[in-house]
Amino acid sequence: MMVHGGAGNWKRTDEAAALEGLRRALAAGTALLARGGSALDAVVAAVSLMEDDPAFNAGTGSALNLDGEDEMDAGVMVGDGLKTGNVTCLRRVRNPVQVARKVMEETDHVLLSGEGALKFARLMGFPDYDPVTAARRRDWQEKREALEEKRPGRSRLARLLRVHPELGGGTVGAVALDRRGKLAAATSTGGVTLKLPGRVGDTPVPGAGNYASPAGAVSATGRGEFMMRFLTAKAVCDRIGAGLSAQQAVDRSLSAMAREVGDEAGVIALDAEGRMGIGHGTAAMPHGYFTSADGKTVVRMQVPRHRA
Ligand code: GLY
Questions:
Q1: How far apart are the C-alpha atoms of 106 and 108, rounded to whole Å?
Q2: Residue 102 belongs to a domain
Q3: What is the CA(39)–ligand 1 centre distance, in A?
Q4: Using the 8-state DSSP alphabet, how is residue 133 labeled?
Q5: How far, in Å, is the centroid of ligand 1 from the Cα of 37?
Q6: Does any domain span residue 307?
Q7: From ligand 1's centre to the CA of 149, what distance in Å?
Q8: What is the structure's pLDDT at 159?
Q9: For residues 2 and 203, what is the distance between their CA atoms, to the nearest angstrom?
Q10: How far are the Cα atoms of 121, 210, 233, 252 from residue 239, in angstroms, in the given order?
Q11: Atom of ligand 1 minimally distant from the CA of 222
Q12: What is the Å distance from ligand 1's center to 9 Cα?
């Protein structure tokens, strides 16, 4: 099982909390797998815990849009049968990833948005919950002021995001392989700070920020618009399906993506034999993994050979 806490520029002071959050998420997911639980159960449990952790940009502590509101995205997918459920621009629930799972299990649809997603969540029993933290509100205020000072007007947001990629960090994701050989992926995010209201990122778009096939499971993080143009998660899965190792598939997909659209992204990938692939074009991407073969848990801020 693997988890990530979002590609970007992490502040040194936030690193310990992120690594501890990853460790907790991995422990919860792998405990389920050890008891014979499904890969889907494991990734949803891990992502739910990270959504509850304000160290990350998902669920509680989600980034706020230009109007200062939470609009959260999440997706789940199982490789077996290519089943997926997703939500976008979802407000006022605690665990968007659990609502995404309900979309997959209880509807004929793949993606619900905004008001409709919220109505569905309430119907499924998810109570009203305010995910906005005081720290995130302060952060929003500062960045909103900086945006106005540096470049008045909304059209300059893209430029600000280029100069400050850390505005988008903190998405969370997990991939897992269970005892029955089934793969699953889950990803959740508050999106990009100061995004235009109604903006949809890569996380709830199957194949962009989240994907699972019988061959591989992938969770992506970073500039959502890049992943939506390149279909990054699907690109990695397809390369695994074509016979590359998970690491080769990640390396080649990220290189191709960097050439085509840009490299502010990261991915974790797992193949049907439990081999892992990890990569990021950003300075950091807190991530962790557990392998049952050696019983070892590893959490770290970036891949060791990383030279960004
Ligand atoms: N990758 C998260 C987002 O762009 O919404």
A1: 7
A2: yes
A3: 23
A4: -
A5: 29
A6: no
A7: 25
A8: 63
A9: 17
A10: 35, 15, 10, 9
A11: 1
A12: 14
Closest alpha carbon to 258 in 221, 277, 230: 230
Pocket test for ligand 1, best of 90, 187, 189 (most atoms within 8 A of CB): 189
Question: Any catalytic annotation for residue 193?
Answer: no
Residue 306 lies in a domain: no
Domains of the chain: total: 1
| Ligand 1 surroundings by CB, under 6 angstroms | 73, 168, 171, 189, 191-192, 201-203, 209, 221-224
* Residue 44 belongs to domain spanning: 2-300
Which of the listed residues 162, 221, 285 should we mutate to test ligand 1's pocket, taking the one with most ligand atoms within 8 A of CB?
Answer: 221
The pLDDT assigned to 156 comes to 57
Q: How many CB atoms lie within 10 A of CB 181?
A: 13
pLDDT score recorded for residue 164: 59
Low-confidence ranges of the chain (pLDDT < 70): 150-168, 306-308
For residue 305, being part of any structural domain is answered with no
Which residues in the chain belong to E strands, given as ranges? 2-4, 72-78, 83-90, 111-113, 172-177, 183-189, 210-212, 216-222, 265-271, 276-280, 287-291, 296-300
